[in-house]
Design brief:
Keywords: Chaperone, Mitochondrion
Organism: Ganoderma sinense ZZ0214-1
Shape: elongated
CATH topology of the domain at 77-159: DNA polymerase, domain 1
Biased composition (Pro residues): 63-73
Mean pLDDT: 81
Strand order of the largest sheet: 1-2
CATH architecture of the domain at 77-159: Orthogonal Bundle
Subunit structure: Interacts with the flavoprotein subunit within the SDH catalytic dimer.
Structural class: mainly alpha
CATH superfamily of the domain at 77-159: Flavinator of succinate dehydrogenase
GO biological process, one term: mitochondrial respiratory chain complex II assembly
Order of helices and strands: HEEHHHHHH
Largest sheet: 2 strands, antiparallel
Amino acid sequence: MSAAMLRLAARRCLRPIATSTALPSSATRTTATRTISTTARRAADPWLLPNMPGHLEKTTSPPDAPAPEPLPRPGESVEKMRARLVYQSRKRGTLESDLLLSTFARERLGDMSEGELREFDKLMDEPDWDIYYWATGKKAPPARWEGSRVLAQLAQHVKNEGKVVRRMPDLS
């Protein structure tokens, strides 16, 4: 940018202002300059943070919403289901859910029975934010999930009573 353009830009951003209003005749009048902001006002952030009241309201599923219908997987072995659930727990769509579910899957999926795996599979069909708020205790789970052993284990995992620093598990 040339020097002339810089001077022009400086003149546009600066304007004289009076530092005093009613001055006695013996006082001298001084002027100073201040910058005028040329940036637009910020709009409200459309992406609310989790655990804020506005986010809870916007991500609440209707109480009368039916349970999601899982995809039929005829003939799927237990080992194949376990491998699929490891992948699904890591690739949810929100980092919060990814972190909670993938670390839970790494720690508990290997020891789950076939019935618990099927229950975890049904839980994975629920919306991400519902699982997140049920597991963190911010919302009560619907009647179909009350008494769920897997959801109780997930809620216990989320409490992180050992204060373990968690990170996404490796893919291998």
